[in-house]
C-alpha cells in the first residue's frame, strides 16, 4: 500500500512538471511546493498507522499514529497560514492529548499487572546495537519484518518515527537464542509471536502504553518470560524501547 502511494505521488509530480513545461498549467517553484506540503507525508503516515491498527483489531487509539497525524495536520495548517504554530509548541501538547485520550478510552485488561515502573538514566546504552547483530534502520515510515522467507537472526531494528511491525507467526525460528533489540523514538511497535514459542520480553516506554501476553500498563516497563524458556531449544529474547508511543506484544 505504501509503495503504491509513493508511486502515485511520483506519477502526479511528473505529470504536473510535464504540463507546466507545455504551458498547460502555470509554472511553480518546486522548493516552495515541497516546503509547504511536506507535512502531508506525516498525515499519511499517521493515517496508515491508525488504519493498520484497526485492520488488525487493536482499535483506533494508536497513540503513535494519532500523534504523527496531529503534528502533520497542525504543521500543514501553519504552512498554509491558517494558524501559527511551532514544532515544539505542537509536539508537547499533542503528546499530552494523545496520552490522555488513550488513558480515557483505550482498552483495559482484567489481568492488569504493572511491575517495576522505572527508567535507567543511561537507557540508550541498554538498547545499543548488539555486537555482531544485523542493523536495520529507518528514519520515517514503516518497518515490517517477518513471514516465511524472512531470515531471523540477532538484530537491532531502529525507527525514528512511524510504525514497526514484527510478525514471527510464520517465520522459521532457528535453534538457540535469538536476540532482537527493537527501538522506536516516536510511534508504535507491535510484535506477533507464534503460539508455543519460548520468549523473554523486556519492554519500556517513556510516554505511552504497553501490552504483553501476561500484563499491560503505561509509562514504564514490563517484562514477560515463558515458563519453558530456560530449557527451550528455540527461543527469542526481545528488548523493546519506545520513547513516545505504544508497545503491543501478542502470542497466537
Number of discrete helical segments: 6
Structural class: alpha/beta
Shape: globular
Number of domains: 2
How much strand? Answer: 25-35%
Biggest sheet layout? 6 strands, mixed
Helical content stands at: 25-40%
What does this structure look like?
By secondary structure, the chain is an alpha/beta fold. It contains 6 helices and 6 strands. It has helices at 2-21, 30-37, 39-55, 63-79, 87-105, 123-126; strands spanning 134-146, 155-167, 176-193, 198-212, 215-225, 234-251. It is globular and about 70 Å long. It has 2 domains: 29-105, no CATH class; 123-251, no CATH class. Strands 1-2-3-6-4-5 form a 6-stranded mixed beta sheet. Helix 3 (39-55) packs antiparallel against helix 4 and helix 4 packs antiparallel against helix 5. Mean pLDDT is 75; it is low at 107-129. The two termini are 25 Å apart.
Quick take:
With 252 residues, this protein is an alpha/beta fold. The chain is built from six helices and six strands. The chain has two domains: 77 residues, no CATH class; 129 residues, no CATH class.
What order do the helices and strands come in, and which of them pair?
Blueprint (H helix, E strand, L loop, with lengths): L1 H20 L8 H8 L1 H17 L7 H17 L7 H19 L17 H4 L7 E13 L8 E13 L8 E18 L4 E15 L2 E11 L8 E18 L1
Parallel strand pairs: 1-2, 2-3, 3-6, 4-6
Antiparallel strand pairs: 4-5
Defining traits:
252 residues; alpha/beta; 2 domains; six-stranded mixed sheet; 6 helices
Amino acid at each position: 500500500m505504501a509503495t503504491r502511494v509513493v508511486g502515485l505521488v511520483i506519477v502526479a509530480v511528473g505529470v504536473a512538471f510535464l504540463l507546466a513545461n507545455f504551458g498547460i498549467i502555470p509554472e511553480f517553484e518546486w522548493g516552495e511546493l515541497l516546503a509547504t506540503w511536506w507535512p502531508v507525508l506525516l498525515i499519511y503516515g499517521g493515517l496508515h498507522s491508525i488504519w493498520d491498527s484497526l485492520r488488525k483489531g487493536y482499535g483506533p487509539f494508536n497513540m503513535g499514529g494519532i500523534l504523527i497525524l496531529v503534528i502533520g495536520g497542525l504543521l500543514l495548517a501553519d504552512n498554509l497560514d491558517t494558524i501559527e504554530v511551532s514544532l515544539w509548541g505542537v509536539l508537547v501538547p499533542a503528546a499530552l492529548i494523545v496520552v490522555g485520550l488513550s488513558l480515557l478510552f483505550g482498552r483495559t485488561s482484567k489481568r492488569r499487572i504493572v511491575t517495576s515502573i522505572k527508567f535507567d538514566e543511561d537507557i540508550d546504552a541498554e538498547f545499543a546495537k548488539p555486537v555482531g547483530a544485523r542493523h536495520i534502520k529507518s528514519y520515517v515510515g514503516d518497518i515490517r519484518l517477518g513471514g516465511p522467507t524472512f531470515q531471523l537472526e540477532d538484530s537491532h531494528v531502529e525507527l525514528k518515527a512511524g510504525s514497526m511491525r514484527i510478525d514471527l507467526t510464520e517465520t522459521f525460528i532457528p535453534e538457540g537464542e535469538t536476540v532482537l533489540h527493537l527501538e522506536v523514538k516516536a510511534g508504535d511497535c507491535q510484535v506477533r509471536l507464534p503460539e508455543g514459542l519460548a520468549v523473554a520480553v523486556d519492554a519500556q516506554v517513556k510516554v505511552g502504553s504497553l501490552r504483553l501476553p501476561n500484563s499491560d500498563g503505561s509509562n514504564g516497563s514490563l517484562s514477560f518470560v515463558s515458563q519453558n524458556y530456560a530449557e527451550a531449544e528455540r527461543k527469542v529474547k526481545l528488548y523493546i524501547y519506545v520513547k513516545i508511543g505504544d508497545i503491543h506484544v501478542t502470542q497466537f
